Amino acid sequence: MRFNLTTRMAAILFASCAMAGAASAQDDFPSRAVTIVVPYATGGMSSTLTQLIAEKMQENLGQPVIVSNQPGANGNLASGAVARAAPDGYTILLGTPSTLTLNPHLYAETPFDLFEDFDPLGLYAITYSVVLTHPDTGYETIDDIVAAAQAAPGTINFGSSGPGSFGHLAGELLAALGDVEMTHIPYPGGGPALTDLMAGRLSFIFGDTIALEQVEAGNLDAVALAGIERIAQAPDLETVAEQGWERLDFTGWQGYVVPRGTPEEIVVRLNEALAYALEDETLGQRINELGADVADPSPEVFAEVLRSNYDKWDQVVQDVDVVIE
Amino acid sequence: MDILTELSANASMGLAVALQPANILYCFIGVFLGTLLGVIPGIGTLAAMTLLFPFTFQLEPTSGLIMLAGIYYGTNYGGTIAAILLNVPGTPGASVTCLDGYPMAKQGRAGVALLMTAVPSFVGASFGIILLMVFAPVISENALRFGPAEYFSLMVLGLVAACTISSGSAAKGLAMVVLGIAFGLVGSDIYTGTQRFTFGVPVLTDGIELVALAMGLFGLPEVIASVRGAKDVKLTQKRVTLKSMIPTRDDIRRSLAPMLRASGIGSFFGTLPGTGGLIASFMSYSVEKRVSKDPSRFGKGAIEGVVAPETANNAADMTAFIPTLTLGIPGSTQMAIMLGIFIIHGITPGPQILTQHPELVWGLIMSFWLGNILLLVLNIPLIGLWVRMLSIPYSLLYPGIVVFICAGVYSISNSVADVIVMVFFGALGYLMRYLNFPAAPLILGFVLGPMIEEHFRRAMLYSRGDPATFIQSPISGVILAISAVLVIWTIVNAFRSHRQRRALNEGINQV
């Protein structure tokens, strides 16, 4: 399904040849290959979905759409590189709340400015987090976890997929809001943290909805959905808002941005291709299988999400007092 | 009987995956390329894997890993061919095979030697695969008992074993492990995100890329060395006919018991972290020599001396997957690369892998069987081709290899910086080669060092800073005790052999 090496090479070759004489290409955009930069390694959810979207966009645009994985520094490397790329529509960046709206607050230095360097192209998926515990703990609500931390200070451990991750901030925010002591135990990725939760070493984690499989298998308990409204994937699962903890809303998203200054008609054209891709049924199914929902791809919606998320994470980072040097 | 039904269910699930036409093809390509690179002296298993893994990028994870595994065990077969015909081990694991394989070739028995390495290799591998199939699920089911303290202890054992049981100088091995750990520290601290030893270079924030490091240390020095002085090779036999492969009844009789013993020895050393094929073949060779009624035949073309190391080598290659797949702990350097490539494909080996990706795991395991059968069937008629491969001038071969290395490293994260990192390690690797420092312990230190740190700190976080946690857990305590015994044994042994050597006034060269 992926591009093989030769097509990719051919596309790159073609792209570099075309670059020489493409100054006036605005009217017939795209006249060469479009690259989507993914700030993560291959294999993850965003990378897999972008591969599928790229294939569909290629159909619509009539030019190759290449996915380039450029992992590094929690997404900062790729975001910084695209921020400096030419605003001609040929370079697109994949963004998540972490890479675009959280990193600027979390890191002492980020190589881009969200509003100065990027324009929204459109969202493609909304992702969710769930609060998971081991069945033996007997926690049924967020309040139960806080009560347990109050009753026996220094016994609660929560895992995350690394410092500055959603899981880390969510756990710290819960501790701050509940005014209790909890120990953060980071893991290199969500999988190993899930294993230690199943072994009963961790008290809880804020994990991906993909872990709901383990809840169904009886290995884990889901305490709440870390969002405001219930979702179709787990209609019986109470939300943190229902339990009175609306600030623990860790609903995420995945979308694309372009370097700021990209001509509007080009953004419109790319957005058309994105909307076309999202109409595909198999793609929609795949997104649902991964525990996410298809998003409204309009740039206006994304602009609003970026603005509100940026302020939200600013507040969260101040509340939990986490900085990464 | 429950285990048997489960085993056959897993086996048939795996076979269904492995026997998909595409996967058969990739398995074939893997073992073919593996043999090809294995035949070329100096391109060991590691170099072959690092050279060819970029080709697996574009494949589905299952096909990619099947192909890569084929390269991994295919090189051994190729290495043996060079060992027997040239007295040059194509892979380090084949160096023991030289001891008796080359004398056999000189006696005009190269054909028999080649057959009697191919068949026992298959037997050893099969034995290893069966153990893998039985133990992988058992360990996976019990893996939840393995917490940070247990992981820490297991990896300490691995590093201790790598330093003490390795074949060369223990001091040099230790030095390289420590250097590897130092390189492993570069990057973001996984507990705080703080940058360590990155010197403000953005590409180092996620640490040094394992594959760039491995290609630099194993691939480039080989090429540089060949520029300095590639010798033309002298083949003992230009042609190996099928007829010359038929072993005598005596050959077969002598081979049966060593095959069984070596399967056991090889399987054991394969699972032990930090050891692997080379140690396994050394061990089984020395065991055969010890139990033989006439040890003086060894080194002069004894068939047992060819059968035993090859069986052990291949058994170890297979069982090495047990800790790698089920616990995510790479037992050998090759497995460290394999682990890295699993992760590049988005799959994290560990206790969950059997439940999350059963098709992939069982498909991969069953493909080992397919691959070994292919190797057996392929190599007998293709020996002529391999022999001719050995006479390609290096001046044509190696420049092409450099291009592959650079393209491969670049393709990992589309970054030129990784290529620069690779060149740096190429220079270092060449220097190490010049000074006779082994590169394998460096890679093991590089991979295991940060993992040891990670689990040590996690265990200390859980215990709220109490180091007793490492002895309170029975599993962890026992493993640490074994490590301690190993260290003491090595020191005592080194001391004793030093005295012996002085007394004899000559080194003990043989195993």
What characteristics describe this protein?
heterodimer; A: about 325 residues; alpha/beta; D-Maltodextrin-Binding Protein, domain 2; six-stranded mixed β-sheet; five-stranded mixed β-sheet; 11 strands; globular; B: about 500 residues; mainly alpha; 21 helices; Bug_dom1 (chain A)
Give a short synopsis of this structure:
By secondary structure, chain A is of the alpha/beta class.
Helix count from the secondary structure assignment of chain B: 21
State the helix count of chain A: 12
Helical content band of chain A: 40-55%
How far is the N terminus from the C terminus of chain B? 43 Å
Total number of β-strand segments of chain A? 11
- CA-based shape of chain A: globular
Q: In which order are the strands of the major sheet of chain B placed?
A: 1-2
Give the largest chain-chain interface (CB within 8 Å).
A-B, 44 and 38 residues
Ranges of chain B where pLDDT stays below 50 over 5 or more residues in a row are: 506-511
- Low-pLDDT runs of 5+ residues of chain A are 9-25
Q: What does the largest sheet of chain A look like?
A: 6 strands, mixed
Pfam families (chain A): TctC
Protein name (chain A): Tripartite tricarboxylate transporter substrate binding protein
Keywords (chain A): Signal
Signal peptide (chain A): 1-25
Structural description of this entry:
Chain A: Belongs to the UPF0065 (bug) family. Chain A: Keywords: Signal. Chain A: It comes from Pelagibacterium lacus. Chain A: This is Tripartite tricarboxylate transporter substrate binding protein. Chain A: InterPro entries: BUG (IPR005064), Bug_dom1 (IPR042100). Chain B: InterPro entries: DUF112_TM (IPR002823). The complex is a heterodimer of chains A (325) and B (511). Chain A is built from 12 helices and 11 strands. About 5% of the residues of chain A have low confidence. In chain A, strand 6, helix 7 and strand 7 form a beta-alpha-beta unit. In chain A, helix 2 crosses helix 10, helix 4 packs parallel to helix 12 and helix 7 packs across helix 12. Chain A has 325 residues and is α/β, with parallel strands linked by helices. By secondary structure, chain B is an all-alpha fold. Chain B has one domain. In chain B, 73% of the residues lie in helices and 1% in strands. Chain B has a two-stranded antiparallel sheet. The longest helix of chain B has 33 residues. Chain B is globular, with a radius of gyration of 22 Å. The chains are: A alpha/beta (325), B mainly alpha (511). At the A-B interface, helix 3, strand 7 and helix 8 of A face helix 19 of B.
